[in-house]
Design goal:
Chain lengths: ~180, ~55, ~250
């Protein structure tokens, strides 16, 4: 390709669009269709790849159900901190989390994040202490926030609802 | 015995808020300034009839 | 400085000497007022969040930055498509301007998100689907800009960049939907068609953020487009800098 001027040297007037080169061939419609198809397939592959790599965490009830196969393998665990279970220890904190009413006892080593509190959804990294156990050793804790915002001054009645889109117990009965 | 760890209120998050807003406002200001300066420099090189806004 | 001010006053006689125009000047003033209102509501008048405390204020710049980075990507994708279809240089320059501004706002989104994550999650970064796909978007935009600026023939780099520009759309859809499709640490959108999980002054501050950052975005795209336009005029004319400088100094009049 040559660096020839795209408009005639003395070309005058015309709006911005018409200053675009006219001599170049346009992209043919079939070629454009192929391009669109390639993009569609490519994005599908990306979605699939991301999806399989994105079982980012297991909820407490799933982890308990799969505890035989999980063994002492490392995985991420999510649940809501059960009120009244938080106990400070020498090197961290122990507490219970629950999801869908299934509790797991957490032995966390390290300082909990600043926003860690009761009824807060948390994400933990670690493993069950032994095969088939429902006690979990954690060394990384991340506080999970919901999409709900509420002014600090207002009442704290809905505190539990606020801190996660996560039901602590299931109270679903048809109606 | 259970302890609720709730030190968020005590420490405060203003340093993070200030940093975030500084990045956005500083970044927008710097980019705007750079773009305007670039435009002025280039305008001098392009013949007047090729500039199409007023 | 003074000569430039004089120049802009006399712009009507010899063509504008900057990328500014009367319209963009008015837009710029309105934008600055809107940014002032955003600071007033976002940092002063709105309350702290019950759960997150003051770090909620980061949202008022984070979420609008993300939205406008998507807008920039869509602009780039549309411009790229029209360029590939009709070889319209005007649309190619729109795409280029959109991509650069989108990259700026994507960077804002990532940085403010990290600064929000540290006090609220406890970590700056996790590789969940939302954060990973957003990082991917940043890379794609940087790729676009790199390809667009390659030292190649205009037609070649514009075409290659336009193809990357089209890829932005699926990437945005993945970013946007990642919190619905997969389990992520990042929360789902606060604002949706089914309603807002935020009220009062907090909602108003977020709204102010959208307005102010949108105005900034429009101003930036217009100016960046004009810079790109000037660049391409220079290149198309085949003028070297020396000749151009002489002309600017008033040899022609």
């Amino acid at each position: 390709m040559e660096l020839t001027p795209r408009t005639g040297p003395e070309s005058e007037g015309g709006d911005a669009a018409s200053a675009a080169p006219r001599k170049k061939r346009r992209m043919s419609l079939p070629a454009l269709a192929v391009l669109v198809a390639v993009i569609a397939v490519g994005s599908f592959v990306v979605v699939q790849a991301l999806g399989s790599a994105t079982t980012f965490y297991r909820n407490a009830d799933e982890a308990v159900a799969q505890r035989e196969s999980l063994g002492v393998k490392r995985f991420r665990l999510q649940g809501t901190v059960v009120p009244g279970t938080i106990v400070q220890t020498g090197d961290g904190v122990t507490f219970e989390i629950a999801y869908n009413g299934v509790p797991i006892t957490i032995q966390h080593v390290g300082d909990p994040p600043e926003m860690f509190k009761e009824n807060q959804a948390v994400l933990l990294e670690g493993h069950f202490v032994a095969e088939g156990s429902t006690t979990y050793d954690s060394d990384l804790m991340i506080v999970k926030h919901s999409e709900v915002y509420k002014a600090e001054e207002s009442d704290r009645l809905n505190q539990a609802e606020m801190n996660g889109n996560v039901p602590v117990t299931t109270v679903r009965n048809g109606s | 015995m259970s302890t609720t760890v709730d030190i968020a209120q005590a420490t405060g998050t203003w340093p993070f808020v200030a940093a975030a807003w500084a990045v956005v406002f500083g970044g927008m200001g710097a980019y705007a300034l750079a773009t305007v300066m670039r435009g002025r420099r280039l305008s001098k090189q392009v013949p007047p009839e090729k500039r199409r806004w007023s | 400085m003074t000569t430039e001010t004089v120049g802009s006053v006399e712009a009507s006689a010899s063509g504008p000497t900057s990328t500014g125009s009367r319209a963009t000047m008015i837009l710029g003033i309105v934008t600055l007022i809107a940014l002032g209102v955003l600071v007033l509501f976002g940092l002063i008048l709105s309350p702290a969040d019950e759960s997150q405390g003051d770090s909620v204020r980061i949202m008022y710049v984070h979420v609008p930055s993300a939205m406008l980075s998507y807008a920039g990507c869509f602009l780039t994708a549309i411009g790229s498509a029209v360029y590939l279809w009709r070889k319209s240089q005007w649309w190619e320059l729109v795409a280029y301007a959109g991509a650069e501004v989108a990259a700026l706002f994507t960077a804002f989104t990532l940085i403010t998100g990290m600064l929000w994550g540290r006090p609220t999650w406890g970590v700056y970064w996790v590789w969940d689907a939302r954060l990973t796909s957003e990082a991917l978007l940043m890379l794609l935009l940087l790729g676009y800009l790199a390809v667009r600026r390659l030292a190649a023939d205009y037609e070649v780099r514009a075409k290659r960049a336009a193809i990357i520009g089209l890829l932005l759309v699926p990437n945005i859809i993945i970013v946007r939907q990642s919190v619905q499709w997969w389990r992520t640490l990042h929360q789902t959108p606060t604002l949706s068609l089914s309603g807002a999980e935020i009220q009062g002054l907090m909602l108003f501050s977020l709204f102010t953020g959208f307005v102010a950052i949108t105005l900034v975005f429009i101003w930036m795209v217009i100016h960046r487009f004009r810079v790109a336009w000037l660049e391409e005029q220079l290149e198309a004319e085949g003028l070297d800098t020396a000749i151009a400088e002489r002309r600017a100094e008033g040899v022609i009049s």
